[in-house]
Design a protein that fits this description.
eight-stranded mixed beta sheet, 334 residues, N-(1-d-carboxylethyl)-l-norvaline Dehydrogenase, domain 2, globular, alpha/beta, 10 strands
Length: 334
């Protein structure tokens, strides 16, 4: 692994964290759009905007030269927000060497096309091994040295087993999986349930409500994920249940935090205006509801979140609506 040069695109909290982890196993260079951020990482070994108070590895270097980084990378890791993912890939596609693996860190859908990020990669730069690193991974906890687990999903499994040691680092344990679709959708869809849980927390709904929302939310996510080609067992693993629990319960979760503020009566516009990082659940809620309709999947929790996010409802009205939903057999939708 030490002879592989890894390029990480995206200087946000998770991109910086993954780049920091990989420095223990291989040379890494991180691309950040902001020259000041590049200078800070190289000189002060910090990224105060996204990881305040955290010291970065001295071996981690950053650059603002996107093309040079991509042209020399043996493995490319994409930590770009979903709505900018394609444009960055288009910019570099002619400079990626043949057969370089491309790994996505992004837990979102492209709104216009409703495509997953691995599908975007396959469309823009076909012919490369493609995968996703996902799971219950709160960046700050990992940078503080706390134990965590993740999943590297790649089709066929072979490339995943070869690359897994790159990301496996100390208390950060990485498992392999061949269900790219299921793993990727688990990371995408749980963000919307986390907003719902946050709304409940903001309204003071209590632990029983939180547990019910997470459990029924996981059922919704699994129904759509399986309809789209994922495997049911994936959603009971780290990329499904694990990520759902972390995102729905942690104060570090951006999507849950959005929900909390909505529950307190604030508008989505003012919440987003104050955020440093992207809450992918807000961006991808419309695409998720279109996919649910296309696959004829009932997702009442996600639908209520969508209505609140687009301003058609409020957190209070959404919870009243959920309480009125008919309760039948637990195996039934709804």
């Amino acid at each position: 692994m030490a002879d592989l040069k890894v390029g990480v695109l995206g200087g946000g909290s998770w991109g910086t964290t993954v780049a920091s982890l990989v420095t223990r196993n291989a040379p890494v260079q991180l691309w950040a759009r902001n020259p000041d951020a590049v200078r800070e990482i190289n000189e002060a070994h910090s990224n105060e905007r996204y990881l305040p108070g955290i010291e970065l590895p001295k071996k981690l270097t950053a650059t603002a030269d996107l093309i040079e980084l991509v042209a020399t990378a043996d493995v490319l890791v994409m930590g770009i927000p979903s709505q900018n993912f394609r444009s960055v890939l288009e910019e570099v596609k002619d400079h990626i060497r043949a057969w370089v693996p491309i790994i996505s860190l992004t837990k979102g859908l492209e709104v216009d096309t409703r495509m997953r990020m691995t599908e975007v990669i396959e469309e823009v730069v076909p012919g490369h091994p493609v995968g996703v690193l996902t799971g219950p991974n709160l960046a700050r906890e990992i940078m503080e040295g706390r134990a965590a687990a993740s999943v590297l999903a790649m089709q066929g499994g072979g490339n995943g087993e070869l690359l897994r040691p790159l990301f496996n680092s100390g208390l950060f344990r990485v498992y392999s999986n061949e269900d790219v679709t299921g793993c990727e959708l688990g990371g995408v869809l749980k963000n919307i349930i986390a907003i719902a849980v946050g709304m409940g927390d903001g309204l003071g709904a209590g632990d029983n409500t939180r547990a019910g929302l997470i459990t029924r939310g996981l059922a919704e996510v699994t129904r759509l994920g399986v309809a789209m080609g994922g495997k049911a067992r994936t959603f009971s693993g780290l990329a499904g249940m694990g990520d759902m629990i972390a995102t729905c319960t942690s104060d570090q979760s951006r999507n849950r935090s959005v929900g909390v503020q909505l529950g307190k009566g604030r508008s989505i516009e003012e919440i987003i205006a104050e955020m440093v990082m992207v809450a992918e659940g807000v961006k991808t809620a419309p695409a998720v509801m279109e996919l649910a309709k296309e696959h004829e999947i009932s997702m009442p929790i996600a639908e209520d979140v969508y209505k609140v996010v687009i301003g058609e409802s409020t957190a209070t009205r959404a919870f009243r609506g959920l309480l009125r939903v008919h309760a039948g057999a637990e195996s039934e939708p709804g």
